[in-house]
Amino acid sequence: MLKTVDLNQVxxxxxxxxxxxASYDDVPPHLQDLWEQKTHYQRxxxxxxxxxxxxxxxxxxxxxxxxxxxxxxxxxxxxxxLRIKSIFNDNETExxxxxxxxxxxxxxxxxxxxxxxxxxxxxxxxxRLLVNSIEIPVQLQISGKKPWEVNHIDTMELWxxxxxxxxxxxxxxxxxxxxxxxxxxxxxxxxxxxxxxEKNLPQIVTYCQKxxxxxxxxxxxxxxxxxxxxxxxxxxx
Length: 237
Hints:
RNaseH-like_sf; 2 domains; exonuclease; hydrolase
């Protein structure tokens, strides 16, 4: 099936998320109680809810999206290109509204591609859209659809080959498929610190864009195609 996928109808996507509050002390008391309940089985016995709060960004109930990077394939003079655009904002409602407006201009059958997207990016986006009272774009709606009707590609799922217990990071998958990735100043575990302590959202945007590029190149590998050279990758503002 992947062989027949038209890359011109694929949007590669990655999101970066942070806790909704800079520190656990800033979290309203009733949400602190709910955080303690939610993370009870995830925390190590010696970890307090306060100590575990740095991971709040990965849970849509306690996190928010600060950046969405998107990659679009296109062909020019029979050569494959990739165009990258990012939507970023401290105000999540504005960010998601801009994202929704962008998708309104795309075809309804647009296919998303993300690494671990089915477990993280796609549901996280839907949950935060709902929280922010923004209608979920048709491209993200899966309610009532059969699995084969859902136009969502997940490069981690492709690598599983049916092994539901298998997890492989994007960096590892890129390495074994010989996809060169730019060196990053940060990794996913540092996004909260860079956002709240260093207040450097542009650095997070750059990191997010690199993940989109890597995911796009991995997708090409799965399709048996050559990766796109750096000179054919454009980042637009």
